[in-house]
Specification:
Elements: H1 11-40, H2 52-65, H3 69-77, H4 79-103, H5 108-119, H6 126-132, H7 137-149, H8 151-163, H9 171-195, H10 197-203, H11 207-225, H12 227-258, H13 263-274, H14 278-288, H15 295-316
Helix pairs in contact: 1-11, 1-15, 2-9, 2-11, 3-7, 4-5, 4-7, 4-8, 4-12, 4-13, 5-8, 5-14, 5-15, 6-7, 6-13, 6-15, 7-13, 8-9, 9-10, 11-14, 11-15, 12-13, 12-15, 14-15
Protein name: Transporter
Keywords: Membrane, Transmembrane, Transmembrane helix
Membrane topology: Multi-pass membrane protein
Length: about 325
């Protein structure tokens, strides 16, 4: 089944797309600088970790504001493809996180952090990277939207199932946190877009930059909170993150091709499976485990944008 072309976007949406492409290109450098700042000046950000959930709420509100009814129509038009993407995302990445934690014999805090990254919904930059890869943007948006909306029901029990052997997991409290920091801000953003779309459209080019800066601040706080452990653990965590992300991209692409969704849809599946909402993972790890458990999410924030940009560049040079 070949992919359907997304509906044409308005001039305002096109301006937002251009801004998003620029933001996602600059984002890896921005996050690297933010991480370096947290590592070099950890005392300057002492006690700032409590602000992470609120900052994540800002990012998710921006995501909600960019949504339109067209995104939800895409789910209804291709339920099979969206369902496949959703199942692949919440099976492949959690399973890989658990397997990699065992394979590398990670300490409990880091193992729980890697698993939590795998149990998070799709990354907020996956749609833009799919566009750069000349993939099926409509499918990408649909899968990312649904994976985010169902996160309160899926992420906590998966984390309990897979990470419970390493650390105690309060799944009920985690559900509440995801509702407050993800679902409610997304719905609020969607309501604002529907109620004041004409005015919101003017701000669309600014929103990707606001999201990028906010995630960078989150990374600074997370790195500062675990600066003492990073020097001894960063190498091992980096290996885990590269394996997790790389295998997720490959298996996501393979799932799309095995299902015969077509090449553009396969590219979308690669990014929807392999790119995670690492900001949410960092927030949950800090609140429910420890700053050290948030280290995999902080490194994932940097790496999956670098690998996503490189993979998109490679895909864009291949025939569709």
């Amino acid at each position: 089944m070949m992919s359907e072309r997304p509906e044409p976007r308005s001039t305002d949406d096109a301006g937002g797309d251009r801004s998003a492409r620029r933001a996602v290109t600059v984002f890896p450098v921005l996050v690297l600088l933010a991480g370096a700042l947290g590592l070099l000046l950890p005392d300057g950000f002492a006690g700032w970790g409590e602000a992470v959930p609120y900052l994540l709420g800002v990012v998710m509100f921006c995501m909600g504001v960019t949504m339109t009814p067209r995104d939800f129509r895409g789910v209804a038009q291709r339920p099979w493809a969206v369902a496949l993407g959703l199942v692949a995302h919440y099976v492949i990445m959690p399973g890989l996180g658990w397997a990699i934690a065992h394979l590398l014999s990670l300490p409990p805090q880091l193992a729980a952090g890697v698993i939590l990254v795998g149990c998070a919904p799709s990354g907020t930059a996956s749609n833009v990277v799919t566009y750069l890869a000349r993939g099926d943007v409509a499918l990408s948006v649909s899968v990312a939207t649904v994976s985010t909306l169902v996160a309160p029901l899926v992420t906590p029990p998966l984390t309990l199932l897979l990470a419970g052997a390493y650390l105690p997991v309060d799944a009920g409290s985690m559900v509440t946190d995801i509702l407050k920091t993800v679902l409610l801000p997304v719905l609020a953003g969607l309501v604002v877009r529907l109620a004041a779309g004409r005015y919101v459209a003017r701000a669309l080019p600014v929103l990707p930059w606001l999201s990028a800066l906010t995630v960078a601040v989150i990374v600074t706080m997370v790195v500062a909170g675990s600066a003492g452990a990073i020097k001894s653990a960063a190498g091992l965590v980096f290996v885990a993150v590269v394996l997790h992300n790389g295998l997720g991209l490959a298996l996501g692409y393979g799932a799309g091709r095995l299902a015969r969704l077509g090449e553009p849809a396969g590219r979308a599946m690669a990014f929807e499976v392999g790119m995670q909402n690492s900001g949410l993972a960092a927030s949950l790890a800090t609140a429910h485990f420890s700053p050290l458990a948030a280290l995999p999410a902080a490194i994932f924030s940097v790496w999956h944008n670098v690998s996503g940009a490189l993979t998109a560049a490679w895909f864009s040079r291949r025939p569709r």
